[in-house]
Structures are given as structure tokens and as C-alpha cells.
Design a protein that fits this description.
It catalyses: (6S)-5-formyl-5,6,7,8-tetrahydrofolate + ATP = (6R)-5,10-methenyltetrahydrofolate + ADP + phosphate. Its cofactor is Mg(2+). InterPro entries: FTHF_cligase (IPR002698), FTHF_cligase-like_sf (IPR024185), NagB/RpiA_transferase-like (IPR037171). With about 210 residues, the protein is of the alpha/beta class. It has a single domain, classed as NagB/RpiA/CoA transferase-like (Rossmann fold). About 30% of the residues lie in helices and about 20% in strands. It has a 7-stranded mixed β-sheet with strand order 3-2-1-6-9-10-11. α3 runs parallel beside α5.
Length: about 210
């Protein structure tokens, strides 16, 4: 996806705000072809399953990819087949997240905003604090681990809840290669992630060694 990385570097011009950067990154995603989505999804699944923090986890909090998000469907099924307890989010009216166990693709139901959610028992917003690894959606990340989300604040609450509970699951963001940026604008409530997984590889966040 070299052409997409070059597009990000040369075409997306933003004024330092998250909104403009989101707009540009979503435009790039909209241009991904079905073949690119399929290839990147397979590679992302392979990379994520090989990550020790995922491979050795007993419980993983994840999400169901929709639209042109980096694909997670195969990853969810592979984790479940391995006997991993997979938790999926359920969007609440206030944009917070409840959680329920993933019981297979036939137990996913259509929800608002085009989302797919698990149909099983709701476990409560604090269920995520029992996860060994938390997989996060996003639009971009930088070398400090600062993640750009879609702006709803749902996963900001998740990261804050983990911090408040004093637990330390590994926080992994799943992205396309071109969404690893030199800098992502941040606000005081933003929390960093620990690991970035893309179809092209794995990067561990180190504030003293920024990337790309």
C-alpha cells in the first residue's frame, strides 16, 4: 500500500486538529479496493496471532471490524478456536461500552451506526478490566503511542477505566501500514497504547525512539 502511505504524507494537509486528520485518513480508507482489504486483513490476522501478548492471553477484549476498518473477523474466530475468552463491545446510549462474550459469527446482531454486536449476556462496562490484552480500533497512531480514534470517546473511556482500576492489560491498536504517523494531535484525556499491529509488522511504542 505504498501509494496510500504517499497519499497520507503528501495530500493530507491538516491544521493541527483531529477533525481534519480524521477526514483525510477516512478518505484514504474509502479508496481501498476489495483486494487490498482482503490481503491486509489476512496479514493483520497473522501478525496479531503471532504477538505473544495475544497468543498467550486468556481473555482478549476485541471488536468486530465494519466497513473499511482493518479486518478482525478472522482474528476473532481464530482466538475463539484457540479457547481464548473474547469480549466484544456493546455501545451504550452515552457512548460508553458494555461487553459480552463472542460466541461466533452467527451470534452477532446488527446495531446502531452500522456496528455488529454480540447477542449474549451483558457483562458490564467493567468487564474489560479483566482482559489480558485489549485490541483497540483507531485511525492513526504515532511513536508515543497516541491514538487517533473516530471522536466518539468510547475507547477513551475504556483506557481511563483500565487506568482507574489499576490494571495493566497490553493495549494494542490495529491499523493499516500508512496510518502509522510521525505525530498525532492529542488532548489531556488521551492515553497511549503499547503496541501497534499493521499488515506489515509490529511496532512497540517507545517515546524515546519515535517512528516512522
Amino acid at each position: 500500500m505504498t501509494r496510500h502511505r504517499e497519499f497520507v504524507r503528501t495530500v493530507i494537509k491538516y491544521d493541527g486538529t483531529k477533525g481534519e486528520l480524521r477526514k483525510g485518513l477516512l478518505a484514504v480508507r474509502a479508496g481501498l479496493t476489495p483486494d487490498e482489504l482482503e490481503v491486509s486483513g489476512a496479514a493483520l490476522t497473522h501478525r496479531a496471532l503471532a504477538l505473544p501478548e495475544v497468543a498467550e492471553a486468556g481473555t482478549v477484549a476485541a471488536y468486530v471490524s465494519v466497513g473499511r476498518e482493518p479486518g478482525t473477523r478472522a482474528l476473532l474466530d481464530a482466538l475463539r478456536e484457540r479457547g481464548v475468552r473474547v469480549l466484544l463491545p456493546v455501545l451504550l446510549d452515552d457512548n460508553d461500552l458494555d461487553w459480552a462474550r463472542y460466541e461466533g459469527p452467527d451470534r452477532l446482531v446488527r446495531a446502531g451506526r452500522g456496528l455488529l454486536e454480540p447477542a449474549g449476556e451483558r457483562l458490564g462496562p467493567d468487564a474489560v478490566t479483566g482482559a489480558d490484552t485489549v485490541l483497540l480500533p483507531g485511525l492513526a497512531v504515532d511513536g508515543r503511542g497516541m491514538r487517533l480514534g473516530r471522536g466518539g470517546g468510547s475507547y477513551d473511556r475504556v483506557l481511563e477505566r483500565l487506568e482507574r482500576a489499576g490494571v495493566g492489560p497490553v493495549r494494542v491498536v490495529l491499523l493499516y501500514d500508512h496510518e502509522v504517523l510521525a505525530h498525532v494531535p492529542e488532548e489531556p484525556h488521551d492515553r497511549p497504547v503499547d503496541v501497534v499491529v499493521t499488515p506489515g509488522g509490529v511496532r512497540r511504542v517507545s517515546p524515546t525512539r519515535p517512528f516512522p
